[in-house]
From TrEMBL:
InterPro entries: NAC-dom (IPR003441), NAC_dom_sf (IPR036093). Coiled coil: none annotated. It comes from Nicotiana attenuata. Its main location: nucleus. SUPFAM superfamilies: NAC domain. One of its GO terms (cellular component) is nucleus. This is NAC domain-containing protein.
Length: 180
C-alpha cells in the first residue's frame, strides 16, 4: 500500500507498512498517507482516549465518522520516564497498559524471499480505575516502534516517535483482561 488510490474504501495498512509511514515521518519525507495519519496530537498527554480519537482522521467511508470501531492513526513522541522506560500516563489519571510482549515486525523482501526485523508492535489498553465511565467505552491501542538499528541513523530528537493506532473495544470482556 505504497500510495493511497482515489476511491479507497478503508485505510488498512499492514504492520510493516505502518512502520514505513513512521520511518518516512522520522526521515522527514512525504508519507503518502492522504492525511490520514495525524501528527500533531500528544497521545501520552492530558486528554482521554476518546478525546484523542476524535482528533484523528476517519479511515473509511464518510458514513464511518461516528464509528469508533475503526483504528485512527497518530504519530506521537514518547515521554521518557527513566533511562529504560517511558511514561504512558494519559488523561485523568489513566494510562495505557501493555497487554503482552512486544512482537517483532518484519519487512518481507519478495525479490529474494528474505525478511528483516524493522521494528515492533505492542498491544495496550486504557486503564483508569479511579475515573471510569461506562459511556466512555474501552479503548485499545497498538504502538509501533522502529528498531534501534534503524533509529541510530537519525538525530536523537527523532528517535522517540511511535505510530499509535487507537480504537474502541467491541467487547467489555476484553476490558476485564486489561485490569488483570
Amino acid at each position: 500500500m505504497e500510495h493511497l488510490q482515489e476511491g479507497f474504501i478503508r485505510f488498512r495498512p499492514t504492520d510493516s507498512e505502518r512502520l514505513k509511514y513512521l520511518l518516512r515521518f522520522i526521515a522527514k519525507q512525504e508519507m503518502n498517507d492522504s492525511g490520514i495519519i495525524t501528527t500533531n496530537i500528544d497521545v501520552y498527554g492530558g486528554e482521554e482516549p476518546w478525546e484523542i480519537y476524535n482528533h484523528g482522521v476517519p479511515c473509511g467511508n464518510d458514513d464511518d465518522n461516528a464509528d469508533s470501531s475503526n483504528y485512527r492513526y497518530f504519530i506521537t513522541k514518547l515521554k521518557k520516564k527513566s533511562k529504560s522506560g517511558y511514561n504512558r500516563e494519559v488523561g485523568n489519571k489513566g494510562s495505557w497498559k501493555q497487554q503482552d510482549k512486544a512482537k517483532s515486525v518484519r519487512y518481507e523482501n519478495t525479490g529474494n524471499s528474505s525478511s528483516v526485523i524493522i521494528g515492533c508492535k505492542k498491544s495496550l489498553c486504557y486503564v483508569n480505575k479511579e475515573y471510569y465511565n461506562q459511556n466512555d467505552g474501552h479503548w485499545v491501542m497498538k504502538e509501533y516502534e522502529l528498531s534501534s538499528v534503524i533509529l541510530q541513523k537519525f538525530d536523537e530528537d527523532r528517535r522517540d516517535y511511535v505510530l499509535c493506532a487507537i480504537k474502541k473495544m467491541p467487547h467489555s470482556a476484553d476490558y476485564a483482561r486489561c485490569l488483570n
